[in-house]
Amino acid sequence: MPSADHDLGPQHLNVPSRSVVREPADRSPEHAEPSRFIPHVQGLRAIAVLAVVLYHFWPARFSGGYVGVDIFFVISGFLITAHLMRELTATGTVRLSQFWARRARRLLPASLLVLLFCALVAMSPYLTPTSALPNEVREILASTFYVENWYLALNSADYLNHAGDPTTVQHYWSLSLEEQFYVMWPLIMLLAAWLGIRFFRGARRRAVLIALGAVTIASFIFCVIFTITDPAPAYFVTFGRMWQFGVGAMVALIPALRIRNAIGSFVLGWAGVIVLLVVILRFDGQTPFPGYMAAIPTLAAAAVIAASNTERWWYPTRLLGIRPAQFVGDISYSLYLWHWPLIIIAPSVPFWGLTIYHRLALLALCFVLAWLTKRFVEDPARGWKVLTSRPARVTLWSSLAAMLVVAATAGLAWAVNAPTYNAGVRAIAELRENPPECFGAAVVLDASCAGTDFGTTILPAPGFAGVDRPSDEQCFVQLNDARPVSCEFGSDDPEAPRIALVGDSHAYQLLSTFQTMAEQNGWHLTTFFKGACPWNTTPLSTPGAFGEACSEWRAGVTEALADADLDAVFTAAIATTPYSAAGYDSAHDAAVGGYRDAWSEVLDRGIPVITVVDNPVWETDPNKCLRTKDLSLCDGPRSELLVADDPLRDAASGLEGVTLLDFTDVFCDADTCAPVVGGANVYRDQDHLTVSFVDTLAPWYTAAISDALQERTTP
Question: Residues of the signal sequence (predicted)?
Answer without folding.
Answer: none
